[in-house]
Amino acid sequence: MTAKLSRYSIIILVTISLSILLPSLYWMIFDKPLRTPQISYSPIIKDFVYTQTGENSSGEKEYLDNQGKSYDRKSYEALLPFSFYYNLDKWGILPDSIDGIPISTSYIRRNSQIVRIRSVYFHTPMIQISPLFESQSDFTRLEMPNELFRISDKLEFLNARSNSVVDSLSDIYNQAFTERGFQFPAKYIAGNPTTRKAFDEGYFIIDAANTVFHLKQIKGKPYCVRTGIPIDLNLRYITVEENSRREFYAIAVTWENQIYLITYDDYKLVRLPVNDFNADEMDLMFYIDPIYRTIKYYSDQELKCIVTDKDYNIIDTYETRWLPKSEWTSSKIAAAIFPFQAERENARTDYILFNLKFNGWLALIGTFLALLTTLAVKTMVYRENLKENWFDLLLVAVTGLYGALAVLLIRPEPWD
């Protein structure tokens, strides 16, 4: 009995290892990069333009507009002065004005902004301690404070060196929160905890009653504001964006996948005209230039682009789809060969995983063939007594190819 247990322990270990190794080897051979287009909106021709990698063996980039007209690289970049203004300025072809707006490299830089929201952000644990910067420092650069704060049943400041609670500071901020009706504990804290920014706007904090508060430190004292953002908005995610344009404090995403700007105008909300965004499956890029606002969001099978004016009225839209990897012929073959695979990485998280991903009914084909092959080899080649090793067949019926290879490689004779 002990010998059998030892054998099956090794078989199970080999089976798990094969479920990681074999699919990886398979996709090293049959995987191919997705040739998705890079979409932009040209203020010169007032239409979408895009680059894509050619289908030829050289893999050279193609530069096209929405009408199918082809460009060389310099002509293409000339259509996008807000993206390639340094190149255009070097070549001496940067326009003096566009749509009546005087243009220069410094003007474009001051009036541009990019915000990225990845699906992985929605599956990342919240940082439990954060630095509270001085938002109106007498110095030009932000400095990392000596204390970090956390919010559980109350707000506490911790000395970063001694890891001890700073009661005097904690009491001051707790009183400020309590006076404004904050209900502990906090559900969500959003901020930009880095000194690599021009200024600080602190944190947006959602309390136990879904009320959104704005917290920062001004001249050593707490600045705590009840924002008035509707509690029934059901916010899921907030990204704070300190930008010299000062149009909005942050971008917020609700559980219903609506996207809002939290503006500097008394925390008023501006909803972006996006109706079919899925935060769990899509990444989003928000581009701001001196004339347009461009919202791009995409998954592993589609890309959508919306261009608006400064007031977020839609000007134009673009949409394209491609065959998702799950529908490739190689994916269907893999599903038939491998009954499951141990997923170690996933585009929706930066964490190392160990998830068993089952491949559906197609896996029954490979499992059935693996079971027949195991029966044939054991009876006709190895001449084994199947009654004594019936668990081998059960293991193959559950694990398919992985178990078949394991039980055929690790034969029972040496363990008898």
Mean pLDDT: 90
- What's the helical proportion of residues? 25-40%
In one word, what is the shape? flat
Total of DSSP H or I helical runs spanning 4+ residues: 9
> Radius of gyration from the CA trace?
29 Å
| Total number of domains | 3
Q: How does the major sheet shape up?
A: 5 strands, antiparallel
Strand order of the largest sheet: 7-19-20-21-22
Compute the number of strand runs: 24
Helix and strand composition category: alpha+beta
* Poorly predicted runs: none
Strand content: 25-35%
- The N- to C-terminal Cα distance equals 9 Å
How would you summarize what this structure contains?
By secondary structure, this protein is α+β, with helices and mostly antiparallel strands. The protein has 9 helices and 24 strands. The longest helix is centred in the N-terminal third of the chain and has 29 residues, at 2-30.
Q: What's the layout of helices and strands?
A:
Blueprint: H1 2-30, E1 38-42, E2 47-53, E3 61-65, E4 70-71, H2 73-78, H3 85-91, E5 97-98, E6 101-102, H4 105-110, E7 113-117, E8 130-131, E9 147-151, E10 155-159, H5 167-179, E11 188-191, E12 203-206, E13 212-218, E14 221-226, E15 235-240, E16 248-254, E17 259-263, E18 269-271, E19 283-288, E20 293-298, E21 302-308, E22 314-321, H6 329-337, E23 340-343, E24 355-358, H7 363-381, H8 390-399, H9 401-409
Antiparallel strand pairs: 1-2, 2-3, 3-4, 5-6, 7-19, 8-9, 9-10, 11-12, 12-13, 13-14, 15-16, 16-17, 17-18, 19-20, 20-21, 21-22, 23-24
Helix pairs in contact: 1-9, 7-8, 7-9, 8-9
